[in-house]
Amino acid sequence: MNEEKKNKHMLLEDRIEIQECLCKGMTFKAIAHRIGKDPTTVSKEVKLHAVN
Length: 52
Hints:
With 52 residues, the chain is an all-alpha fold. The chain has 3 helices and no strands. The protein has one domain.
């Protein structure tokens, strides 16, 4: 795993990437692989910041 991706906190760049990937219809698993995070982390991040 890339050393710079081992940080504990989600970076703004990661959040932007998640948003763009969701708009493209990508799965949490695919997004997680792309940004170097666990799919559960991506899922929790999306649910935490979802706007209804």
